[in-house]
Structure formats: C-alpha cells, structure tokens
Amino acid sequence: MLGTVLAVLAGAVLVAKEALFTYALRGVAQQNLLGDSGNRDQQIGHASVTGAKNILLIGVDARPGQDPHEPVRSDSIIILHIPASYDAAYLVSIPRDTWVEIPPYDNGARQYPGGHDKINAAFAYGGNGLAGTAARGRAVELLALTIKKLCGVTFDGAAIVDFTGFQQVVNVLGGVDMYVDQETTSVSIGHNSKGETVVPFRQYTRDDGGQGLDPVPGVTPVVYHVGYQHLEPWQALDYVRQRETLPNGDYDRQRHQQQFIKAVFKRMLSKDMLTNPVRFNKVGEVAGKAMTIDNGGIDLADWAYAMRGVSGDDVLTIKSNEGTFNQSPGNGTAEELDRTTVNLLTAVRTDKVKGFVTAHPELVAGG
Questions:
Q1: Cα–Cα distance, 125 to 344 (Å, whole number)
Q2: Of 5, 85, 201, 207, which alpha carbon lies 20 to 30 A from 268's?
Q3: CB 190 within 8 A of CB 178
Q4: Tell me, what's the pLDDT at 55?
Q5: Using 50, 70 and 90 to split pLDDT, how confident is the model at 122?
Q6: In this structure, are residues 122 and 143 in contact, taking their beta carbons and an 8 Å threshold?
C-alpha cells in the first residue's frame, strides 16, 4: 500500500538519502489511476508537500488463471489519511460489502447506468470490458467517485496492491516476522494422514447468502497460533487471506493484511537487506510488479521527505463499524456504515482524525 510504502521508506531517505528511495521504487508502475476524480498537485521538479492528504489504497487478489478481461472486485479498500502536521498517518478501511450508490459511469468500453451495490463492485464496473492499465485506471476512478458520493472524501493519490504478486516479494525475503493476533484456522491448506497438502473444508453458500464450511474427514487444517513468529512465504499469504473462520470475518482479514504489508516493508528496509545489494535489487524488482501507484502529480521522493517523521509504527489503523458486521437494511448480505464511522469519515474529510482518535481510542487496532 502506498501509505505504508511512503511511511516506512521515508526513514530510508534519512539513512541512505534520496538515491536509495529512487532505487527501491524504480520498478513500481506509476499511472494516473484517479483520472478526473483526483486532486492532482502538478509540480515542476521537487517541491514541498503541504496540506492534509488522502490516498486511496486498493488490494486485489485475482483468482489464478483468471481471464484478464473478467471484472475483478476490490478485495480491500483503505483510506490513508495524512494530516497537515505530517506527524502521523491513519488507515481507515471501508468494508468491501458496504451497500452504496454507485454513480453512472462510461469507461469507453461499457456503460454502467448507476445503481446500488456493494462498494467493491464499483471497482469491477469501472474496469468492465477493459484490460491492463486501462482497466486499472477506470476501476479506481469509479471507486473514488463512489467514495466521494458516499462521504465527500476526495483523493490526492492512489495505489493498487496485488496480493498474489506480493507472494513473490515474500519469497525473496524468505518470509516475514509478524504478530499473529488471533488464532486463525486455514480454510485453504490442510494435511491428511499421509502428510499430503489438501483442502480441509468444502465451502458452500448458505440459504442466508453467507459462506458455509464442511470439514473434510481425515484432514487437519493448518492453524496459526497467537504470538510473534516467523511465517514462511506460503504461511504468510495463506494467513492474510483467511476470513471465513474468523469471528469478525473480513474486518479481521483487513487488519491482518495491513499488518502483513507493514511487516513486508519493514523487512525490505532492514539492515541485512540494505547491506545486500543483490538481494535488495531482487526485492525491488518483484515489488514493482505487485504495485501500481498514482502519485497525484507529486514526486515520490517529495512524498517521502514530507513523511520523514513518520515511521511504520506511527501508521495507526482505525476500526470502521467498531470491527463488526453492521447489516444493511437495503440488502441482508451487505452492511452499512454506523454513525461513528460516518463521523470518522467526516474527520478524514476535514482533517480532524487526531481529535477523533483521542475521543475514540478503543477504535485503534493493535498490531
């Protein structure tokens, strides 16, 4: 995610100066993702970054072998709010099942007439009928327009993170060290009596529209226990994809994904990585393939310098809907934002998040 990248890499600017930052992100694809919906701050050369900024972060996790023209729904939607003081950064997730009004949109290949749907559908409708960079740009633009209609927040930058691509990053890193904050049972990976890797549950759609699980006899699922630990690449990617067995479902998964991304970039900029040019070069290469960034017209080095006082540990995650499912009256399988979350998004729009956090410390997620 762009916000975590900027916050963590800002420290590298102080240690290894601008050259290291430019080197680390040289392979990251840059594109105008927000289109006409964004607040582009076109600058000539290097310039000071001022004023509060909001960055739209989108996680996607396409199925293996998926047709590139098939619409992809956003797996996670996060607003990174950077206050005008540049002394902190806040991550606010919008539940992907939030029932919203999506405005009419013409992406040049398909017309969407507008209507009500889950918010992650906006990403799919925006890119429908397109592929590659064209699909990404239109998908992000419609999602940004939908969020603006929902709460009035507009964006100064954006980033798409491909979780499948991040598996290659973790492979090069040799895994990640992170805190598992709740016991998590995998619905994807288990082992039978012969030690073979097999799927431990049969998944089905219940009558209420929810996801049902039937254990496969003779298969023991992988379980991630609470505590600080080193996760191998396959474990890390499996852990952050789990939601069906977690008490708060997608809310818990969103938190784990945020913790995972922060852990990855801390590992990328650890001392032993920075002193190994060959390995650092490989990490930068594969990370670039997993991300697309819209810098909002501001040079990435200027972003990093503006956030030089913010470390990865200063990026706070704030729970939306108090971390639980809040059913929408308009659709039983969707949810709506509660009053506290609406107030939180108003604080994001007006740069008053610090005061909101002071008043609601219980909404700051750990980890």
A1: 27
A2: 85
A3: no
A4: 93
A5: very high
A6: yes
Query: Count of alpha carbons within 13 Å of 154, Cβ hemisphere only?
Result: 8
10 Å CB burial of residue 316 (0-12, 13-18, 19+) is middle
Residue 323 has pLDDT above 70, yes or no: yes
- Which run of H or E residues covers position 7? helix 2-24
Please, which pLDDT band fits residue 50 given cuts at 50, 70 and 90?
confident
| Per-residue tokens: 104 | 């009419």
Torsion of CA 17, 23, 29, 34, to 10 degrees: 0
| CA–CA dist 23, 28 (Å, integer) | 10
Residue 226 banded pLDDT, cuts 50, 70, 90: very high
What's the CA gap between 84 and 335, in Å, rounded? 32
CB 100 within 8 A of CB 92: no
Using DSSP, state whether 89 is helix, strand or coil.
strand
Nearest C-alpha neighbor of 261 from the set 35, 9, 20: 9
Does residue 154 carry a pLDDT above 80?
Answer: yes
Query: At which residue do the structure tokens 């239109």 appear?
Result: 138
pLDDT, residue 8, reads: 44
Measured CA to CA, the distance from residue 134 to residue 126 in angstroms comes to: 10
Segment holding 76, helix H or strand E: strand 76-82
Domains of the chain (ranges plus CATH)?
2-172+276-363 (3.30.420.590)
79 vs 29 pLDDT, higher one: 79
Q: Are 278 and 348 in contact (CB under 8 A)?
A: no
Task: Collapse the DSSP code of 72 into the 3-class scheme (helix H, G, I; strand E, B; otherwise coil) and give the result.
Answer: coil
Q: What are phi and psi of 197, to 5 degrees?
A: -85, 120
Specify the DSSP class assigned to residue 291.
E
